[in-house]
Amino acid sequence: PIVLLPFMGKPLNAFVLGEAQAEQLGIRPTQVKRRVVLLATMAVGAAGSVSGIIGVLGVMGPPIMSFFGR
């Protein structure tokens, strides 16, 4: 998802002018919105899943090591 977001630059730059002007430039506003939301959601989900694993190991690691270290 992160690899595809930079290719959305031109349509997103057209949104700066407003949806009506972007549509006049040949951009489909609803389609671009859906793609950006989908890609951003996938990127956030991937980041959360990776940090979630690290967080669980960070919280559970020390008690487990102290249990086996006795």
Structure characterization notes:
- 76% of the residues lie in helices and 0% in strands.
- The protein is built from three helices and no strands.
- It starts with 8 loop residues before the first helix and ends with a helix.
Give the class from helix and strand content and strand pairing.
mainly alpha
* Rg on CA atoms, Å: 21 Å
Tell the overall outline: rod-shaped
Secondary-structure element order, as H and E?
HHH
In whole angstroms, the N-to-C terminal distance is 45 Å
The main pleated sheet reads as: none
- Helical fraction: over 70%
Number of helices: 3
> Care to count the β-strands?
0
Helix and strand arrangement:
Layout: H1 9-15, H2 19-24, H3 29-68
Keywords:
single chain, 70 residues, mainly alpha, rod-shaped
Structure in a nutshell:
With 70 residues, this protein is mainly alpha-helical.
